[in-house]
């Protein structure tokens, strides 16, 4: 994961990880292990801010 002093790389890494997370949710819905409504809720833009914060805290040297 990029260092927090390189914001462009950090943003690119976060967006790629978010896209992978949403693809995983879609795969879970397709496999029947997650309901469609739950998949939509977990992948919503409303939930993205909390997901990004958690991602940065666990994958970057960032403190909020």
From TrEMBL:
Domain of life: Bacteria
Keywords from the UniProt entry: Plasmid
Record-given protein name: Uncharacterized protein
């Amino acid at each position: 994961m990029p260092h927090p002093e390189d914001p462009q790389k950090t943003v690119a890494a976060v967006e790629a990880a978010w896209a992978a997370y949403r693809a995983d949710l879609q795969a879970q819905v397709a496999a029947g292990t997650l309901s469609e409504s739950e998949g939509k809720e977990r992948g919503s833009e409303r939930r993205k801010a909390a997901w990004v914060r958690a991602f940065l805290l666990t994958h970057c040297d960032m403190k909020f």
